[in-house]
Amino acid sequence: MSVSHPLLVSAQDGAIPIRFVQAGGVLDDAARRWGDRHGFEGKPGQLLVVPDADGEIGQVVVGAGATFDPMSVRGLSARLPGGLYRLEVAAQDAELATLAFLLGAYVFDRYKARPDRTPVRLVALDGVDVAEISRIAAACALAREMVDTPAADMGPLQIETIAREIAESAGAEITVTTGDALLEDNYPAVHAVGRAAAPHRAPRLIEIGWKLDRTDLPLIALVGKGVVFDTGGLDLKPAAGMRNMKKDMGGAAHALALGRLVMQADLPVRLVVIVAAVENAVSADAFRPGDILNSRKGLTIEIGNTDAEGRLILADALTRAGEHQPDLTLDFATLTGAARIALGPELPPLYTDDEALAAGLLAAAGQVRDPLWRMPLWPGYRGALDAEIADLRNDPAGWAQAGSVTAALFLQKFAPTTGAWAHMDIFAWNPRARPGYPEGGEAQALRACYAMLRARYVD
Predict the structure, then answer these.
(1) Residue 422 near residue 332, CB atoms below 8 Å
(2) Parallel, antiparallel, or unpaired: how do β-strands 328-333 and 349-351 relate?
(3) What is a single Pfam family found in this protein's UniProt entry (predicted)?
(4) Using alpha carbons only, what angle is made at residue 104 by residues 103 and 106, rounded to the nearest 5 degrees?
(5) So what's the pLDDT on residue 400?
(6) Distance from CA of residue 269 to its chain's centroid?
(7) In CATH, what is the architecture of 133-458?
(8) Which of 17, 33, 136, 392 has the fewest CB atoms below 10 angstroms from its CB?
(9) 92 to each of 41, 98, 200, how far by Cα in Å?
(10) What's the pLDDT tens digit per position in 117-146?
């Protein structure tokens, strides 16, 4: 499917050059004199707008430090005056630098009027696959928009609506199981977590299937956690912990965005996208600490903490993915605060016991500058999931301490066994604003996973 981005144009007439200069690099006379006057030294992030003889913008010079990082282009859109620009970068950096520019141009303005501003547009350089870059930028924007949208406007029904639009545009099949039908169709954990919500925000299991009749193609399953708002349930979060819980559906947003990207690019795979969309609300019918929940796999789960709900809905979703016998399963979830304690907000942990998949994901992450850090599925902590009166517990015993690791071990018990599986414990959020990275929703691991899929099945 051909896609083009409104900020990319082919015409070069009048385009202002953007040059990247390393510390101590050579500048032309006009830029050097102007740079000396304004203290430009080529440090990373320094930006120098150099006027021409008529007082218009003649060129833009950007400090690159010791080496040029194509992702540094991400911060330019927010810092440049409106107009048409042309990146002057090496051919091998052109695609990633162009994509970085588009990622940095994202603005969430659904609820706030912005002053009219001449857009900052970019010339599409020769050799750049405009359709591919536009698809990737649009996928990241979709994930970020879904995360940024408040829970009142991004409930289970709205996630279903987005999924239906994605499926319809790709000619894919979609099925949705909602409310008490979840019990009839054997999704008891999804039902238990979401049953306390208002009727119009009933829980649901959303499944998209694409090219499933092409049995000659490998089958990929994408699974996402879609908790549209997490109060913590009866184990209520404090106000500070609840403030940004609209983003707890970030895993669902990533699974849907990546699924759309795979279908738009027409990758040679079969695809299943499974999203469990619920609100972890508080009501007289909320599930309780001490309850024993059934799961689709047949394992019983003792509830020690109702705020560890994401792994419960993923248990049913991963089990359903396994019934398709996928060759590869990727799941995305804003699962634990422990992941942030271990690695912070910008570096999502990756869990897999498949060495080839780990190597492929980490190589892709480095190639496209979408970082991941592999964490261990440490078997010594499996005992922390043992329960006295059920098959396992949702709140691992405190002696294990490693909350992100034990959450991944919990999911591993339900992950498909027919192929490789990887779990990404993403944050899906920028906690601090800076050029190209506004505070709010962020796409994490999405580009790395897509690049890995292309490397595995296309390139």
Answers:
(1) no
(2) unpaired
(3) Peptidase_M17_N_1
(4) 75
(5) 97
(6) 21
(7) 3-Layer(aba) Sandwich (3.40)
(8) 33
(9) 25, 11, 50
(10) 889 999 999 889 999 999 999 999 999 999
> Residues 19, 23, 27, CA angle at the centre, nearest 5°?
45
Cβ-count burial of 417 within 10 angstroms (0-12 exposed, 13-18 middle, 19+ buried)? exposed
- Is residue 130 within 8 Å of residue 121, measured between CB atoms? no
Q: Sketch the domain layout of the chain as residue ranges.
A: 8-128, 133-458
Catalytic site includes residue 320: no
Looking at 311, 340, 413, 456, which residue is catalytic?
311
Q: What letters, b where the CB count within 10 A reaches 16 and e where it falls short, cover 202-230?
A: bbbbbbbbbbeeeeebbbbbbbbbbbbbb
Query: Topology of 8-128 in CATH?
Result: Leucine Aminopeptidase, subunit E; domain 1 (3.40.220)
Residue 434 falls in the annotated catalytic set:
no
Residue owning tokens 């994408």: 222
Q: Is the pTM of this model over 0.90?
A: yes
* Secondary structure (3-state) at 116: coil
Which two three-digit tokens encode residue 10? 């082919």
- Given the residues 79, 237, 369, 454, the one annotated as active site: 237
Q: How many residues does the chain have?
A: 459
